[in-house]
Amino acid sequence: MDLKELYRDVILDHNRRPRNFGPLEGANHRAEGNNPLCGDRLTLAVRLAGDRIEDIRFEGSGCAISTASASLMTEAVKGKDRASVRQLFERIHALLTQPDAAADPALGKLAALSGVREFPARVKCASLCWHTLNAALASPSGAATVSTE
Ligand code: ZN
Known about the structure:
Blueprint: H1 3-16, E1 29-35, E2 40-49, E3 52-61, H2 64-77, H3 82-97, H4 123-138, E4 143-147
Parallel strand pairs: 1-4
Antiparallel strand pairs: 1-2, 2-3
Helix pairs in contact: 1-2, 2-4, 3-4
The protein binds zinc ion.
The site of zinc ion (ZN) has 8 residues, from helix 2.
């Protein structure tokens, strides 16, 4: 199995069985993300304890890329503090937008999203959850909304 197949399998697996999917009890930060270009909709609920993401879950519906990306993201950021999340976001952003970015070992399974950059229209599908997370963390209490358009 080559790397591309491995990456594709990770995406398919996380689309079929999204991790951390469903409502979150005791969430204190929320945001909604919308990617009208593809029709992806995402609601992110975060329980922030001090500076650390204690728990995070998502709901919504979208294409395979957006669902898998949100699933992978929730796994990756759970337990991390804001600074680590910001670093991870920068790495993901580079992975999705720089054609020759090498897969960063720190990305772990998130590296599976690197195939998306061959399809520029899908980059927004993959990055929607990250922009939504930034909005959720930036909003002190209530609900934030982001759109890729
Ligand atoms: Zn999409």
